[in-house]
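REVIEWER CHECKLIST
Item 1: Sequence provided? yes
Item 2: Single chain? yes
Item 3: Sequence as submitted:
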Amino acid sequence: MPSRQPAGPGATETMKIEAITLREIQMPLVHFFETSFGRTYSRRILLVTAHCEGVDGWAESVVGEDPFYSSEWIESAWPTLTTYLIPMLLGKQVESGREIPALLAKVRGHRMAKAGLENAVWDAEAQQKKQPLWKLLGGTRREIPCGVSIGIQDSVEQLLEKIDTELKAGYRRIKVKVKPGWDVNVLERIRSRWADITLSCDANSAYTLDQVEHLRNFDQFNLLMIEQPLWNDEIYYHARLQKELRTAICLDESIVSARSAAFALDTDACRIINIKVGRVGGFSEAIGVHDAAQAHKVPVWCGGMLESGIGRAHNIALSTLPNFSLPGDVSASKRYWKEDIIDPEVTVSPQGMIAIGDQAGMGYRIKADLIEKLTVKKQTLRA
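Item 4: Structure as written out by the authors:
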């Protein structure tokens, strides 16, 4: 008996999830990236492949090397996936990636691990339906505006050089990482050189509410936003802080679901939301956050997690949804990697835009030989 239903009037084609492969690949960064958590020189990247009746859907679980940005990290995600999450999907017959969250709901949390699985199935579904992933998600934009995130540097001069390079490359928004001791003085130097560029800063929870007087100093720099100044799991105190600042607060780590987004929006805890598809648990929840923000007329943008080309391609697809009106951290492959694992690599126009194509699936081909060369660990689980 064939496992797929025949396509035809009123019929819905399904896919059987026959196997799932996990791979850890290791990719050195072109240049170190530093936040308030520390400095990263290379990435351990967790790739997920969903094998669905001759179609291979690819995704990236954006867990980090360490449990700093999130409680999830690569050493926790791998056993959670192999022991619990993957067995919940193997052998299942599904019509859409939207069905995956319900199948994994018994496991609490572990959103980045779940997102890798869900998004791989979305990619497989898009290929099966011969549709671009971005259209399947409900996207409408044919090009997306790009900004860059620049980490803490060894000197302010080095930071200014990097900003100059990115502005000349056409990027439409500069975001710099800040922390106590590397903030007001740095922003002063940037603004004294570039008075009118679209400038943001990202604190990654480096401040506390008793530093409100210090944070008020940020108002003088005409910033697009200050991202996640307070605790990573806090919304209420951000609402209190937002009342004290002219600068818009953007929430990142605090937004882990459409429900937490609704809470933040209802309490005026932020005026902008950063959506990271891995942080919220996959495309389905990311769409829910997008829709909640859109209903409140609050703009969103797509945050980056130092992804390989596979995660980057998924970010591009998500960024085509209509409320992604601010430049995201979806920049060119060459900013991070000597060679990316997709073909073509992600490129940004001199106007700071990424063009959206009509190829089925994520829109980029997998460099299977390069992925195999970079793989340090691999495991396939079958139904």
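Item 5: Key structural point noted by reviewer: Residues 111-128 form the longest helix (18 residues).
Item 6: Recommendation: ____
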